[in-house]
Amino acid sequence: MGLDISMPSIMGAASLAGIVVNDSILLLAFLKVRVREGFSVPEAAKMASRERFRAILLTSLTTIAGLTPLLLEKSLQAQILTPLATSIVFGLLVSTLLVLLVVPAIFCVFNDFGWVARETVDSTYREQV
Fold first, then answer.
1. What's the angle, vertex CA 15, arms to CA 94 and CA 84, rounded to 5?
2. What is the pTM of this model?
3. Cα–Cα–Cα angle for 60, 63, 65, rounded to 5 degrees
């Protein structure tokens, strides 16, 4: 969009980080619940992504829809906040896909390496004993 990095764009990136972390934590919480229910980690990752798809997508789309008028505004007053809206809107477009696809994949890879906390994966076995 031809904008330079400025303080409002950095504030937008910080706000974006909060939204993305929120979505990721919620997705991982659902993933861990499915693992505790006895599903394998890859299957739990698929289920968590499917279950949280609508919520994450709607959160992103409503935020993007709310910021689009500010993003498209050309008035002098809006030019101060346009970099903030740009950071959030385009960041959400990318991060929504990353949260839904990459976060579960990274969790599966971390599980393969043994980097996932044992109580997450082994809690099912402890409950059965």
1. 80
2. 0.79
3. 105
The pLDDT of 102-124, averaged and rounded, is 80
What are the DSSP E strand ranges found in the chain? none
Domain coordinates of the chain in residue numbers?
7-128
Give pLDDT tens digits for 53-90: 999 999 999 999 999 999 998 888 888 899 999 999 99
Return d(Cα 92, Cα 31) in angstroms, integer. Answer: 22
Taking each helix axis as running N to C, give the angle between helix 41-72 and helix 82-97, from 0 to 180 degrees, rounded to the nearest 10: 160
Class of domain 7-128: mainly alpha
Q: What is the dihedral of CA 81, 83, 84, 85, to 10 degrees?
A: 90
* CB-based contacts of 45, cutoff 8 Å, min separation 6: 31, 104, 105, 107, 108
Distance CA 90, CA 118 (A): 37
